[in-house]
Amino acid sequence: MSQSSxxxxxxxxxxxxxxxxxxxxxxxxxxxxxxxxxAFKGFNYGIDFVGGIEVQVRFNKAVTVDxxxxxxxxxxxxxxxxxxFGEDNEFLIRVExxxxxxxxxxxxxxxxxxxxxxxxxSQNFDGAELRKxxxxxxxxxxELRSNGLLAIFYSLIMILVYVGFRFDFQFAPGAVxxxxxxxxxxxxxxxLFQREVNIQTLAAIxxxxxxxxxxxxxxxxxxxxxxxxxxxxxxxxxxxxxxxEVLSRxxxxxxxxxxAVLCLYVLGKGVxxxxxxxxxxxxxxxxxxSIYVASPLTIVFDRLMGNSRxxxxx
Length: 314
Hints:
Largest sheet: 4 strands, antiparallel
Helix content: 55-70%
Radius of gyration: 25 Å
Distance between the termini: 19 Å
Strand order of the largest sheet: 3-4-2-5
Oligomer: single chain
Number of helices: 11
CATH architecture of the largest domain: Up-down Bundle
CATH topology of the largest domain: Multidrug efflux transporter AcrB transmembrane fold
């Protein structure tokens, strides 16, 4: 960096750090609201996590949801739901988990219910095309849910270790808190709108964690590069300037990624649409948190570690 650029400390600079306390309060409110929604409203788990039967059927003529619901009542299968899926003549039938006294009895009840539904659809509706039939036992569903949450937890622990060795443990807590922030807010939005949480949702959240971490690492890299260049400046100044220097890169990356995800959401169906919805939330929240959560937390942890640089004059 040239001497002239070192002197030009104010040109094109946005005061991100000065506004960080305001956005810190906003983030805290969003996280607490998300935790409240998760705790008291809960998730709309897919059959991946609670077990049950899922049948995707398509008809070659117009059929209403009420007709499918009336048919399900005749099968004797309890606790079922029907929703339109994709085209107007395509539906998703879900049946909650069926449990018997033994594993053999549970399997028999599930197989019997699947046969009643699939056979009944073919007999009662001309041109019924069964596109997908999935069954998941309650124990397997609980195991998948537990393993999915553990995967997220372990990934955050590994990220904490990686950032600690890659940079400094001054940077690591901010990065991990930032990722928790993104994941919790995303899950809070799912709880608010009662969108289905399944294996694909957890895969998307892990993708969000990776995306947000990449954005955060770019900011941290620039902070580390600028610290030796501004030895007499406070860390607040260095962090603020670093965020400004990579801001154009951050915006371009986020906008282009968001455009691709929105195209998937508009044009996609089923799993692709749900995945795109999750990623769209993650891109927006991840971009925000890398600027207003991760970077300012570097200053906070620097002070907690007793480094006087954070309080020196800019």
